[in-house]
Structures are given as C-alpha cells and as structure tokens.
Amino acid sequence: MTDSSPTRRLAHFASTLRLATVPAGVVIRAKELLLDYVGHTLSAAGEDPARRLIRFAKSVGGPAESRIIGSDLAVASPWAALVNGAMGHMAELDDTHRGTMSHPGDSIWAAGLALAEKDGLSGEELLTAAIAGYETGIRVGEAVMPDHYRRGWHTSGTMMAFGAAATAGRLLGLDPEAMAWALGTAGAQAAGNFAHLSERAMTKDFNCGQAAKSGVIAALLAREGFTGPTDVLENPRGFLALYGSANNRPERLTAGLGQAWKTLEIAQKPYSACRYIHASIDALLALRNDARFGARDVRHITARILSTGAALVNDPLPWEGDKGLQGTRFSAQFNLAVALLHGREGLWNLLDKTHPLEYRDAPEIREIMRTVTVIADAELDRNFPDQWSSIVEVELKSGERSSRRVDYPLGEPETPMAESMQIEKFKRLTALAGWSEAKSMAFAALVHDCERTPTLEPLLLHL
C-alpha cells in the first residue's frame, strides 16, 4: 500500500509513530492530559447519566477485559470505551481543541485505556497511541471546519471516531494498511449531532463515548483483516464530501504531520462549565480583582460572547424545567453570578456536585443572574475559532463602568494552567471520589513516569 493519499498518510503516521521520535514537550503534555482525563472522568462516575450507562454496560456484559472508571465493573473493551468516553464529557471539565471546537481526550483516552488494559500493554505504548490519536483526529476535524460544526455536527463525536481508531489501531500494532482499514471503518461509524442542546439530553455525552467505542471496534475488526475504504477521507462519497462543505480544507489533513504537533494545541478547563463561558469568567474575575468591587456594588453585567458560543450559553432565568447539572454548566449567567459573588473559590466549589444546585437555588445568585445580559457579538467572530473571545462590561451602582476583553481563557496554550493548578484540580476531583491526598499524589507520580512502566496495572488498580 502506498501512502500518497491523505488517509493513507495519516494511517502510515499513526501506525509507525514511535515515542522516541516525539518531542519531549509533546510527551509531557500527553501525560498532563491523561491525568486530567482520569480526574474529571472519575468525578463523573456517580452522575445520573453515568449510572445509567454503567447499568447498560453490565447488562450487555462480555468478557471482563477493561475497567469502567470509578466502578468495580469490568466489561468487554468496546463497552468500557463507550462508558468511559461518555463519562469524560459529563463534568464539563474535559480538554478542548479550539480550532475544531472539540474535546478530543474523552474518546482518545477511553479507547486507549480500554485496549491497553485488555492486552496488558505498557505506558509507553499508551502514550504513543494517544498522541497518534490526537494528531490524527484533530487533523480530520480541521479539514471540515468550521462549516461542519455550523451544520450541527458534534465534532467530538464525528472526528474523534478517527482519533480513537488511530489510538486503538496503534495499540493493536496494526500495520499501515490495516490502520487505513480501521480509519475507513471509523468513517462508517462517525456520528453525533447537537440536537441534544435544547433539552440538555444525555446524548451530548454519548457522542464522545460512541466515538471511543467506534474506534475500538474499527481497530479490532481491522486486526481480523476486515477491510474498510483506504481513502475514506478524500473519497467522493467519504467523510470530507459528506460531512463537510465547499469550504473544506483537505490540505490540513497532513499539513505539518510529524512536525507541527496538534497535541500541544489542547487546552484544559479550570472550571466546570462550557468552554465558551470561560473567557467571560476570566474577564469578570480580573475586573473584580482590579476594581475591588463586590456583588452589592454591581448594577449590571454585559457579557459579549462570540455568536457561536453565545447561542449555547445564553441561558438566563427563568429556566424552563429542571436542567440539572447541565443547566448550571451551560449558563453564562449562572457562572458569572458565582464568579462575582464567590470568586475563583466558588467556581472550584462547583466541582462538587452538591454545590451547583445549591448555588442555583440561592436567592443572591438568582438575583445576580437577572443583572447579566449575554450579547452575541459578531465582531468577535472575526477571529473565531482561532480566538474564543469575550468582552465583559460591568456597570456599578455608582455609575462607574469598566470592561475587560479576554481572547485566550485560562488553560489555553497561550495562557496555560500552572502545574500546581493542574494538581490542585486533580486532587479536588479525586477527593470527591473518596481518594486520599496520598493516593492522588501516588497516582500522579505513576502518570509522570508512565513511559517507563512495563505494564499499566499499577495505574489501573487505582481506578
């Protein structure tokens, strides 16, 4: 098989990648993303959608190959990938790639951990496969963006079927031809839309789990010699043609492959909220700190958010029905009220599942929410998706006005979370799952040395 076409070039890259050829900074970033994924996925294990998925996985059963994070259940690897991928997206704390408006790590790590455990593989093999998945999946997404997203496709579900397949295929040791088959079969399964938004339905999280499961199935089938189209991306009836538009950018499928590392473009979330809210949070916290005003001093807050984001997070009172935790995580008004009244510590408190609903029902929070106006600002769309910008304007009761613009919220590559904040986030999330600080730090140490571990069993035992 030649590797002249985009699909084949991506397959060859994913199949032959070696950790020794990956820059050290990329490897470090992958380990940070793994630690982050485990923390926020573990914290979601007790949520209602997770419990339902776990019951489903238990009912379908299969061999006890792969653990479901935060439970005592092991099931067949595709079902573990489904549940762990979905749980990764539940807490709104997952990693983000702004160029594709996606959350790649949910599907990549879910697929990777499922097969690494099933086949008893090493930490080096897991990291190598995950990096191959990030590099492959993101490039597929970039080739069809932004029209793919604007048409209603959930990129974390569609493009990450390819990322998960690359991860799974690398773990299974597929050669370039079989890897191309796996990508082809992933393309046959790529799915996920945003129809869930109006009702905050559980399919939001399912999309990420489905991508992980699809990738695992695609790779397992390819190992058996089950063929898929080796030109699934560029085929006239393939992914770009059907899922994209006249504005596709196929050159992005392989641009900088093996040199410009997409893994370094991944952002982390400090707060349990839709990423489109984070720039507004940062702007308000900065204004609150600089001007030293409190909630009682504020007459009105205006959050100008790029129009794509505003359509998702403009959720003021009165809320219709009980949107539960997703209601709090997708309301700019709610998160800005918490930021104004309680500051960063209040936002950290939202990691605990009891606080969001308590805050939501607190009279003082609801009063502040009524003072917040979200405006879809078309001017901010000019640099989207390269920038996820927001401008927050605060009017005080004294008549004083101030504003702050944030283009890169905390956690982006341009404004990274300090290592100490990453560890603090992990410790808080694992404490909610009953871990001691000693256990959390021991696990973090295992991840830090992941590439030197001949087996992942010591790490997996914690889960």
In brief:
The chain has 463 residues and is of the alpha+beta class. The protein has 20 helices and six strands. A hairpin with a 6-residue loop joins β1 and β2.
Folded structure, characterized:
This protein is α+β, with helices and mostly antiparallel strands and 463 residues long. It has 2 domains: 6-270 and 442-460, 2-methylcitrate dehydratase PrpD (Orthogonal Bundle), CATH 1.10.4100; 275-406, 60s Ribosomal Protein L30, Chain: A (2-Layer Sandwich), CATH 3.30.1330.120. Helix content is 54%, strand content 6%. The protein has helices at 6-16, 24-44, 48-60, 77-90, 104-118, 123-144, 147-150, 155-171, 176-189, 203-223, 239-243, 275-291, 307-313, 324-329, 332-349, 354-361, 363-369, 419-432, 437-448, 457-460, and strands spanning 66-67, 74-75, 298-305, 372-376, 390-396, 401-406. The strands form 2 sheets. The protein has a 4-stranded mixed β-sheet with strand order 4-3-5-6, with helices on one face. Strand 1 and strand 2 (74-75) form a beta hairpin. It starts with 5 loop residues before the first helix and ends with a helix.
Using only C-alpha atoms, the radius of gyration works out to 21 Å
**N/C terminus separation:** 40 Å
One letter per element, helices H and strands E, the order comes to HHHEEHHHHHHHHHEHHHHHEEEHHH
Amount of helix = 40-55%
List unreliable stretches of 5+ residues. Answer: none
What would the CATH topology of the largest domain be? 2-methylcitrate dehydratase PrpD
Question: What's the level 1 CATH class of the largest domain?
Answer: Mainly Alpha
- Which secondary-structure class do the elements indicate? alpha+beta
| General shape | globular
Major sheet description: 4 strands, mixed
Question: What is the level-2 CATH architecture name of the largest domain?
Answer: Orthogonal Bundle
Mean pLDDT metric: 95
Our count of domains comes out at: 2
